Amino acid sequence: MKIKYFISICLFFFSSFIHSTHDPFEDINKVTHKLNQELDSFAARPVAEIYKKITPDLIEIGLSNSLSNVEDINIGINNVLQGKIKDGMSDFTRVLVNTTFGIFGLFDIASDMGLEKNNEDFGQTLALWGVPEGPYIVLPGLGPSTLRDSLAKIPDSILSPSLLFSDNQTIYAITAADLLITRADLLGIDVLIVGDEYLFMKDAYFQNREYEIYDGKIEDDFDTFDEDWED
Prior knowledge:
By secondary structure, the protein is mainly alpha-helical. 66% of the residues lie in helices and 3% in strands.
């Protein structure tokens, strides 16, 4: 009942933005983007560089695996909500295997057993349920998003790691560690940015989200061109 109520609110909230592909908040988005870049330059990036420099590879991999193990709970729930029961059961099995035999997720034993890591969140679930993405939004400290994905972060934060831990300090520490490791993994990506950085980040976000929502099964212009050429 609570999920249906949440979806109803989302549909009502998105009603004025259906099929919106423009950037109505571009001015404020650019301001937020600039602030995020400054925050990254003065804080996030230096901390991530220090983390990469002083953390032994074995510990770095272990921490990343542990956070990934907690994340699999949320992924599994969203796979089930999307009707992908088999994938959801695989995600839950990953948690069981890695938590027990992988020493609380420090080692990714499940992947070695052939249980592949999936990537799902509530934003993707809402997309498959027909909720439109709404306008593009740049979130302070978090970066590119859409109205749909921004609201979806609320249930995502509740589903994991809150399901495992009741202590708020522990949850905050896990979230901070997740952000740190994510930023560390993105070091060096700046060299890939060409042209207007704001537009590059926005286009990259939409393309990546489309890829994630459809599990990589998307059509591109080259496929259409090939079909027309064969005809």
